[in-house]
Write a structure and sequence with these properties.
four-stranded mixed sheet; alpha/beta; about 375 residues
Amino acid sequence: MMKIGVWLIGARGSIATTVVAGTAAVKCGLSAAVGCVTELPSFADCALPGIGDLVFGGHDIATTPLTKRAERLAEGGVLPARILDAVLDDLAAADAEIRPGVAAAGHDPATLVADIAGFRERRGLDLVVVVNAASTEPPAVPCPEHASLAALENAMARGRSVLPPSSLYAYAAFRAGCPYVDFTPSTGVRLPALDQLARAERLPYAGSDAKTGETLVKSALTPMFAQRALRVRSWSGINLLGGGDGATLADPATAASKLASKSRVLAAALGGDVEQVLHIDHVADMGEWKTAWDHITFDGFLGVRMALQFTWQGCDSALAAPLVIDLARLMSHAYARGHCGPVAPLAFFFKDPVGEAACGLAEQFAALTQWAAQS
Ligand SMILES: NC(=O)c1ccc[n+]([C@@H]2O[C@H](COP(=O)([O-])OP(=O)(O)OC[C@H]3O[C@@H](n4cnc5c(N)ncnc54)[C@H](O)[C@@H]3O)[C@@H](O)[C@H]2O)c1
């Protein structure tokens, strides 16, 4: 069994802290791995790395220690207070492996590459999977250097950095020989130059923007309308969220990345005729919780108009953390089987999947389990 490291970009964020604390709680038997898809019987024969065997490190631009972040998450009700004492050593061990990140374009990726390689060597790891769980960035401004690896390398050699931070991290991951997962809607790996680099290094990557709430429900419901031949006329979604993610998305330029990835499911599943209204609002008082209220209008037989509404109230990090664990385990599986380029069967986890994939949740789950069993 390979020894797997998980290098978290945004390693001091709510999701990353919940991943490290949650993994430790599962390892010492204080909590069950509820929400981990890879713990389902369908994956029992895949020989995935054990949850408790994962080793954590990462980059962040914040300096608050993980133990302090975990205390705040416990006060906010995300981490059960009863597990805190038991996971302090694991949090401290991961904290010792966090290195300063880069906040803007214009950096030499060499330090990032060395940080990841140093972690792998120090901890005796066979493989490190890099997962971007940092704050969402605004969409990247397109430039010719994004279009090919040769042009990108040329620009870098001339000291011109053209990559936003999320893409710099993807570049560094590939140069360090690591698979890369984009848990966020940031540009990240979605540039032709980086796709070329991943293929040249024979590395798999996956993304973008994990579906954990409203979009998860959307991808389960859209096939129902389509298969019952009901005509969806409009789909409106109001999202209220607190936490660091909510504060970041209060900036309209940054929210544009999230709105774009959230709206892709409907267009892909039902075509472009559905009127879509989508809002994201920051409500600081909601802390780590999120409420999505969706209102859907549709036509039935003889054009009779009807509506469906649902309300989703979720704890974002509790929904997201098990998926980070799943993705780390499945990416090590992809790597071990020589998969390179986008891993389309992981579409089940994402709002805006890379590679060719079905858009309904049930079909995506079938593709995932089939791939995991075969590959
Ligand atoms: N929680 C969910 O259900 C969910 C679902 C899909 C996507 N996401 C995405 O996951 C990301 C993390 O969410 P969160 O709730 O943990 O947010 P958070 O605000 O709690 O944490 C983000 C972390 O990223 C760090 N960071 C910011 N810029 C960085 C940089 N350039 N380099 C390194 N670190 C940097 C911040 O300091 C912070 O520690 C967000 O982009 C969010 O949109 C979350």
